Here is the input.
Amino acid sequence: MRSKNLKFKILNYLLYFLLIGFTLAVLYPIVNVFSISLRPSDRLLSTSLKVIPEGASFHAYQVLFTQTPFLLWFWNSILIALVVTVTGVALASTAGYAFSRFDFYGKKSAMVGLLVTQMFPPTMLLLPMYIMLLKLHLINSYFGIIIIYTSTALPFCVWQMKGYYDTIPFSLEEAARIDGSTRWGAFRRVILPLAAPALVITALFSFMTAWAEYVVAAQILQDTSLFTLPLGLKQFESSMSTQWGLYAAGSLIISIPAVALFLFLSRWLISGLTLGSVKG
Here is the structure.
């Protein structure tokens, strides 16, 4: 009995050691970027490990907000990400419901087709999407980039929603229909509230697809007034030098909305991830 307790304690210590090491490994790059954002411009390449460097100031943040179009890039990113999120949730919630509850010709082929699209890297789809937007005269526009982000995020979201709907008993809808509700009313008042965890995952995935993406945006958006945050940060880099202070300050600010969204939605994340994607 004593040997079992000792073994249990040793395993617990090892587990805590691994968790602490993993946490430090995750936090170190963030702390390092924060330290770089505070350094004076003549000490950006310093090898010092001090979190708060000598001569630390918020000058880079002041320059970022007052002497660069950072707020415009931030607005563009928020606008595009929110539209992609709302569109993705609306389309995925209804399409997933249709795949879950109705039998129609071509249903299996459509599901397999959605799954196959996830096997290709987004860069492989860039050329055909670019040609499609070029013919539609949507290059260099919000609408064009929103279409690409929504279409790339939608297959996973539809599968996610379809899997979660499968876990909701059909008898709940039947009870609502017996009480006089229409199919749309049962879907809106009964199914959607129960599918809140899956909707949260869908919203988060759609938001992140649009928020930090660079490669597609660099090809579609050419007007600097339409630049998103990743494209804007790239402007701080040139062939001769890079403004690391502005780069670090901007990188930290970009991460704030994503972290805040994760924290706000965290209570729904675990159940959504574990229940929504296990049934096909």
